[in-house]
């Protein structure tokens, strides 16, 4: 009976004991160890998982995002107004791109130019009638305000479009530069200037917001101040990324 019980327990003992302690097979008065092949040893699978360099770098590069509800800090600063000011900077950049960096010629290409006269500042299209004679020539008729002809000419010369107007009485002829590779590259340089100007404006908005927050430290915990500053910086970084995207898109468009 004991022998039969031992034989039944043999598979269990084989899995648990090391090779040197194999379950003996008892037959009568002889004791013999089972062959190692018939009693395979199953070792526990100990696996330690280490963080890879890639996963460590990814975790290091990630910054926890802050999302503060404006209503909770409205007594300190209006985050909605800060967001509107930053959005206005991006809108101005888009307007500058569309007005000053268009390769195609149209009468509306001169509408945005501001003319300074003794009576104040006016958009060019309010002082003269603009028409297109050919893809390379725009004409400004100053019959309605002949006294502003000189001021309009100066405004055209000083504009970012680098125009060289020709005056004949009350008619101003404005040759449009041909779309050469050099002209395209000059427009790209101008686009970078506009984007840098936008980033400067964005930094001023961020700086003004943080200054306002720091002035409200009285009665506000340092942790709250830190979170608000982090939120403002996070907003500024987002809009700065949008400025870079606008520049990349415009550069690709200008270089064809």
Automatic annotation (TrEMBL):
Q: InterPro entries of this UniProt entry?
A: Ribosome_recyc_fac, Ribosome_recyc_fac_dom, RRF_sf
Per UniProt, subcellular location reads as:
Mitochondrion
Annotated Gene Ontology MF terms?
Answer: ribosomal large subunit binding
UniProtKB keywords: Cytoplasm, Mitochondrion, Protein biosynthesis, Transit peptide
Q: What is its main location?
A: mitochondrion
Looking at the Swiss-Prot or TrEMBL record, what is one Pfam family this protein matches?
A: RRF
User: Its domain of life?
Assistant: Eukaryota
Q: Which GO terms describe its biological process?
A: translation
Domain Ribosome recycling factor, residue spans: 93-255
Q: Name one GO cellular component term.
A: mitochondrion
Q: Which PANTHER family match?
A: MITOCHONDRIAL RIBOSOME RECYCLING FACTOR PSEUDO 1, RIBOSOME RECYCLING FACTOR
Family membership, please give it: Belongs to the RRF family.
What name has this protein been given in UniProt?
A: Ribosome-recycling factor, mitochondrial
Organism of origin is Anabarilius grahami (Kanglang fish)
